[in-house]
Specification:
Blueprint lengths: L1 H30 L11 H6 L24 H37 L12 H13 L5 H33 L2
Helix pairs in contact: 1-3
């Protein structure tokens, strides 16, 4: 029962949680630090899936569909009613708010570029990421060149294997 009560409390806290994320996203818009608009294609489906007319259609209703048999009837009724109300009063309106925000504010403000270098201080960001993930003191351009050389080396090895296998097949008459 306590787990279900905690679940209900989290549902009720969802609007504040979402508002906090929206404020961070607005700050990103203000600073020019957003995701590329292209990666948000189809985002609406993941939001509209939670905008339901009937609380029982909501994914958030699932935990109260099948209570353990050990739950008292009054706990079942109270928790089910609480979750139903939280979906109607908190979850659905918050997702409606978030959908409006995405359509009217965030997506129109997202950048058309895809590379992080287009972000404010994007080159510094790339340098930091190269150092963090490779532990090498090198530039992004040097790392890119190293990657291209590695791809070329591997392709050369693959071509040699293909050549040897082809020669073997010809030798044995395949």
């Amino acid at each position: 029962v306590e787990d279900h009560e905690n679940y209900l409390a989290r549902l009720r806290a969802f609007p504040e949680y979402a508002r906090g994320h929206v404020e961070l996203m607005r700050e990103g818009l203000r600073r020019g630090v957003t995701v590329p608009a292209v990666i948000l294609e189809g985002y609406e489906d993941s939001i509209t899936a939670h905008i339901v007319e009937d609380a029982e259609e909501s994914l958030f209703f699932k935990p109260v569909r099948d209570f353990p048999e050990s739950f008292a009837a009054e706990d079942r009724e109270r928790l089910e009613a609480g979750v139903r109300a939280a979906i109607a009063d908190d979850i659905v309106p918050t997702y409606e708010f978030f959908l409006r925000f995405m359509r009217e504010e965030y997506l129109p403000g997202c950048r058309a570029t895809i590379g992080a270098s287009a972000l404010p201080r994007g080159r510094d960001f790339y340098r930091f990421r190269v150092k963090k993930y490779t532990t090498l003191d090198t530039t992004p351009e040097e790392m890119h060149a190293r990657g291209l050389a590695e791809v070329q080396r591997i392709r050369g090895e693959m071509d040699q294997i293909i050549e040897v296998q082809t020669a073997r097949k010809e030798w044995i008459g395949l």
